[in-house]
Structure formats: C-alpha cells, structure tokens
Amino acid sequence: MACPVQFLCRTLRTVGLVLLYYVFSIGITFYNKWLMKGFHYPLFMTLVHLALNFCLSALTRRAMQCWTGKTRVILGWSDYLRKVAPTALATTLDIGLSNWSFLFITISLYTMTKSSAVLFILFFSLVLKLEEPNPFLILVVLLIASGLFMFTFQSTQFNLKGFLMVLLAAFIGGIRWTFTQVLMQKAELGLQNPVDAMYHLQPLMFLGLFPLFLYNEGLSLSTSDKLFRETEPLPLLYLVFLLSFGGILAFGLGFSEFLLVSRTSSLTLSISGIFKEICTLVLATSLVGDKLSVLNWLGFAVCLCGISLHVGLKVYYSKNKSPSLRQLTSRSPELELPLLRRNDEDDSTAENEEEEITLH
User: Fold this and answer.
1) How far, in Å, CA of 335 to CA of 333, rounded?
2) Which residues of 285-311 are buried (b: 16+ CB within 10 A; e: fewer)?
3) pTM reported for the whole predicted model
4) Which tens digits make up the pLDDT trace of 244-260?
C-alpha cells in the first residue's frame, strides 16, 4: 500500500508530465499558425523540423547508449525500406498537410477537424484487425461525425480548401498511427522505444516530402527575399532561429508523449488529449480571435463525447481480456528512462493502469 507521500509524489509527477505535454502540443499548434502568417512556406518549415528531429533523436540515442551501455537498434536496408517506408510516407503527408492547412484555416477549425482522425484510426484498425469490432463503435462514429458537421455548419471562418487539407491529413493520420502501432509492436524490429522509431522515420519522411516541396514551394522560395535572397544577416538569423525553435517543439512533443505514456499509461495520454482540445479551443477564441457560435460549441461537445466513449471502451475491453502478443505494454523496460526509474516496486505496481498503448 502506497503511503500518502508516495501518492502525492506520483500525482505531482503525473500533473507535471501532462503540463509538459500540453506546453509542447498546444505550443506547436499556435507556433505553426503564427509563423504561417508571415512565412508562407509550410513544406519547407516541415523539412527543417524533420531534419532537426533526426539530429535530436540521434543525440538522444547516443546519450541513452552512453547511460545504459546498451547498443541502440539499427535496421538493415531491407527491413528499413519494406517495413518503415510506408509508415514514414503516411507520417510525412499527415504532418505536411496539417502544417499547410494553417495558411487557410483557423486554429479552432484545425483542432476540431483533426479530432476526426479517431474515425479513420478506428477504420484502419478494424481492417488490420488491431481493433475488435463491437456495436458501440457505430455510436462513436456517429457522435464524432455529427459533431464535426455541427462544428463546420455555417461557420463564419470556414475555408473549404483548408478544411479538405486537414480532413485528408486526418485520413492519412489514421493510416499513419495504425502503421506506427504495427511497426512498434513488431518485436523483431526492436523499435518499441519511440526515440528509435523517430530516428528511423525522419530520413524517409524528409525524402518523401522533398519532391512535394520542390513542386509547390521550391521556385517561389528560391526567388523570395524571406530566406535565400535575404541581404541582411539579422532577419535571416531570426528566421533560422524561429524555424529551429519549431523543430525543438516538434521533438519535445514526441518526447513528452513518450514520457507521459511510459511513466503513467496510455489512458492518461488519451484523457489528457481530450482536455488539450478544450484548452486549445478556449485559447484560440480568447487569444487569436477565432469566432465560434453556440452550434459550433455544441458540435465540439458532441465530438468530445464520441472520443470519450472511444477511450472508455478501450479501457473497458483492455481490462476484460488477457494481454496478447500484439499488445505493447506501457511498462516495458525499453520504455523506461534511467533518470526516472523508481526504486519502490509498490509504486510501479500501483501505476499499471492499462496494458495496451492506444495511439492517440
């Protein structure tokens, strides 16, 4: 039985990890929208972030290797191209289209539309038999779909082009997270640690997005005074700093999600994600002037009910079946960080809320 001091420490640590996740997740959303107001090259920005993520994940792997003395996994070319490439392509299209959409739509519309990714994740999970079909999933789909319709109906700040971009990104995001789950659950690949997965994904993501960047932004960026034709050093350094800062936010988001799941559970991440959407919309209406009607807020509430029902179903079914070989335990030693390991075994047992990682 954990003593009150241990319970308080565990609670404070969980709150701290959730707040860290909120800072990076909400921060990168507002950062992308703010940067796109003056720098209209979202694909180039994404390429910079991917390159920086690769460098930071490589440094993190080296630090972990020095700390633990364990050699990090490096995939051979055959497995790398056949098994990692589909996930990398889906991921880069999801991120690229999401960033691109900020040129056209508001943060609130982006947040709401992106939440519909749960629908596509459910669909592809059922197709690949990662999810067990049950009648409640129909209710989840109806709630999220109707909430999305109510949110976009007669919206004063609706943009069809941006909306279709985010919707396509959400569709591809369903493929992305389903492939990511399959990739990380293949024990023979050894990519259970998200840092190793990020390290292997970034180069293929960069190569996958680069042709689209050349086609849409290459000529325009090369002739613009925003970067390559900038004559003053200070504005150029300032822009490089801004782009680099976004890359750090992107890496911090992935790493904070990893910390939150590995030190608590995927249930905590899923519930935190629901409240994060609420915080994002509140900040968007109060800070950047997004306008939402009563019907829009009602649609958002209906959509959140669908997402909450989905999370509740995941918890219920995961607690009423034995773990399978396809499940990835959130308490795996590979997901432990040496600096955060606990010495108290009772503390470890008390936090094992859920066996299966639900990719949110």
Assistant:
1) 5
2) beeeebebeeebeebbebbbbbbebbb
3) 0.73
4) 998 899 888 877 876 77
